Amino acid sequence: MAELNVQPKKKSPILWIILALIALAILFFLVRRNSETKNSAVSDTTVQDTIAKTVSDWDQVDFNSPGTSYDEVTDKGVIIRSANGYAIYGIGENILFAKDQSTIQSTADGQLKQIAASLKKRFDGANLGIYGNTDSTGTATHNKKLGAERAEAVKNWLIKNGFPENLISIHSKGESAPVATNATEKGKELNRSVEIVALSTKK
């Protein structure tokens, strides 16, 4: 009987190389994912800390602060209120915008320039919060959006006129903080405004 001499098949080195490459790819993916998760957590924490500090600062603003006047602001359409550490410059929606619009009218340039000059004179380097207010016409969602768009328009105007973007935040109160009744046209007009709050960095 003939003796069979069967040699075991040698495993191809190519198979081992392929397996090693797959293992390395999986390891790389896992390490990268873990790193991104850590970075994301740090970023989210930083953002949350910034928001918390900002909310705390803006929460101290009393929009019913007593009225005041500054020599450099002569336009009667600009209402100024102030308290310790901040000032509020209010300007009517009818001056800034056409009805239900968020594009600043060219006729508002004079008032905005007076406010800008006053901000640079008295609150240079201060944090600025821009608040958009509306009347109750339309839905609350629409008014919240409109208030934000109007605040954003004023922010963009300030940036174009030399104010640092990183010091300006926008806030929309929409119809939630009326200063007069929405039952009359006069009251609605008073409720439509943009307020620029200068929050002094000096404590």
What's the topology here?
Elements: H1 13-59, E1 67-68, E2 78-83, E3 86-92, H2 93-96, H3 109-122, E4 127-133, H4 140-160, E5 168-174, H5 185-191, E6 193-199
Parallel strand pairs: 4-5
Antiparallel strand pairs: 1-2, 2-3, 3-6, 4-6
Description of the structure:
This protein is elongated. Strand 4, helix 4 and strand 5 (168-174) form a beta-alpha-beta unit. The protein contains 5 helices and 6 strands. The protein has 203 residues and is α+β, with helices and mostly antiparallel strands. The termini are far apart. A 6-stranded mixed beta sheet has the order 1-2-3-6-4-5. It has 2 domains: 14-59; 67-199, OmpA-like domain (60s Ribosomal Protein L30, Chain: A, 2-Layer Sandwich), CATH 3.30.1330.60. The protein has helices at residues 13-59, 93-96, 109-122, 140-160, 185-191, and strands spanning 67-68, 78-83, 86-92, 127-133, 168-174, 193-199.
- Rg over C-alpha atoms, rounded to the nearest angstrom: 30 Å
Q: Label the structural class.
A: alpha+beta
**From N to C, what is the helix and strand string?**
HEEEHHEHEHE
Distance N to C terminus: 105 Å
Q: In which range does the helix fraction lie?
A: 40-55%
For the largest beta-sheet, the strand count, sense and barrel status come to: 6 strands, mixed
Question: Can you identify the CATH superfamily of the largest domain?
Answer: OmpA-like domain
CATH architecture level-2 label of the largest domain = 2-Layer Sandwich
How many β-strand runs?
Answer: 6
